[in-house]
Amino acid sequence: MANHVTNVSQTEEVTSTRRVIAASSVGTLIEWYDFYIFGSLAKIISEQFFPKDNPTAALLATLATFAAGFVVRPFGALFFGRLGDLIGRKYTFLVTLIIMGGSTFAIGLVPGYKTIGFVAPAIVFILRLLQGLALGGEYGGAATYVAEHSPADKRGFWTSFIQTTATFGLFVSLGVILIVRQTLGVETFTDWGWRVPFLLSIFLVAISVYIRMKMSESPLFAKLKKEGKTSANPLAESFQKKDNLKMVLLALLGATAGQGVVWYTGQFYALSFLQNACNVEFVQSNYIISVALIIGTPFFVLFGALSDKIGRKYIMMTGMLVAVLAYRPIYTMMYNEADLKQKTEIAEQTKVDVKHELKGTDSLTTTVTTKAFSDGTTYKETVKATVPLDPAKKAELEAAGKLKPETKKETTLPQNVFYKMIGLVLIQVIFVTMVYGPIAAFLVEIFPTRIRYTSMSLPYHIGNGVFGGLVPLISTRLVEATRPGPDLPPSDPLAGLWYPILIAGVSFVIGTLYISNKTNNMDVE
Amino acid sequence: MSAIKKIAGLIWALMGAGIIPLAIMQAMKEIAAKPSEENWIFWSIVIVVLTPIIAFSLITFGVFALKGEYDVIE
Description:
By secondary structure, chain A is α+β, with helices and mostly antiparallel strands.
């Protein structure tokens, strides 16, 4: 009888833990989805909301907005972290979900720059900041909530499900974009179809809010509250007390900064590199990343569970070290696999189509060159030259250097190279799972319950938001710096990797030297 | 091990202090060479956001390490 009661109680406990994980993970996944569709559609958004005169400035402006989203994340961490330690985890991450969903939906409704001028990018900028604030409050809450429900010897395993949400959110965002783009066609998608993934968010958020409303408060926090032991000032307690501040700094410099750059390099930079340095066609490059992400995602759980056995530190540090050592060789291989100079062109299959048309007061010449290579690679280059019919205007634009044609390069890789690319990206995703899988458990275990939400959120979001979030901006800049002239290709397309290599390298040294591996299986109070 | 942690602490603190003039000088050099909007945006983010975070965290962390605060971490 006693055994039966124990079994029933254990079954109930497992069911309840699963429910907690599912409810927390679904909401966090939706928040990541909301956040990443903006990044995944950066190019289209720059065309819609920023002046088109200078495409680089437009792209940089978008990246800056992107970074702004990341930069405000630490403020969201402080604001919502404090709330979570004062009033509870449940209500705080319910609020963050609503703010995120509302902002994402609103971005889908903002008229373009052509319609309302500079008000458009200003509104998008504000909504992006709100997204960043909400995300800053979400992750710490979800990780803390799940960890506070988990048994000590399975904390790495249970929290790793929260860790899958960031990658899975990116995967879902890429999937939704691809499906909408394929369904509506490229032109319609560029015109208005890109709004659909943003508008869809409202339904996902509504479902998640409903699920979260039914959840109860974290047992550890509820106990503290009942005993009147919650912190009166979580911010001061987290960052003004030396014993806690030193752990915040250790978590940032020895773990989350390195983890952040590895995360963004393995997923975002890999996609950007495929599209911009290798010129891999849009749909194919997204497929490469999506397939690698879906194969790699279970490794979060594997490394999370493994960290319960051998410790968080060893897995995270190994992930950082191998990433630092392997990035240059991996990206060299990716570049070489798509480098047309290393392939044999089948000259007789080269086609050049030239089309002239009138567009208002301009003449538009579109030249499409298609090439085939012996290994099955195909290449398409579209050059659009718009020239005003008015000679005076033409001379004026020519003098200002604004008559440059728009060039789009698309390389479609053969199947064997496509699979190789998936493999190369997958290796990077595995690095991501090593550094990211155990990190929620690691962060939860180094801070006490009364200030956990605040204390763990800040280093997480500075590491990921600032160090990681700036990977696209800084890496693009490092590559641009190797360009010998304005119209010449960069001399070192891999130069962008120096930023993540340096940050992850420093983080590895600090983490190895100062972090203890004894943090696994400890009780959290 | 404690001695290594303390010596490394000095290195972190010096790195944190050194990054401030380095970033400012590089920003001034690049903006003077090409005062474009993208240069301003990029260096504003580096100087206003990234540099203070790196400098503050490395200096404080380094000083803590130097004082032996990380000698015993459980």
